[in-house]
Design goal:
With about 110 residues, the chain is of the alpha/beta class. The chain has 5 helices and 3 strands. It folds into 2 domains: about 5-75, no CATH class; about 80-110, no CATH class.
Amino acid sequence: MPRPYTLFTGQWADLPFEEVARLASGWGYDGLEIAVSGDHLDAWRWDEPGYVESKLAVLEKYNLKVWAISNHLKGQAVCDDPIDFRHEAIVGTKVWATGIPKVSANAPPRK
């Protein structure tokens, strides 16, 4: 069985998800690695009834599959020290909150 060719959607996060799906299908891709960015996928909405199904419907419309979900950008903030103003745009307002990191009681002391 040949390997599927997939396209990472992150570099087109400024385009609507359906537009990226349409383009990728037209370019001959078999599927997408969907970025948690732009309107491509919102991790805060995964449990919302119908949300995931609406994304799968777009993929089906363009005969595409999904084998990976990418959260690269948010992952850049994991274990970063120090946390500073640049992280607000990366993690978003729900995670950023006040910008003051909460430290677990079991975490090693900060330098």
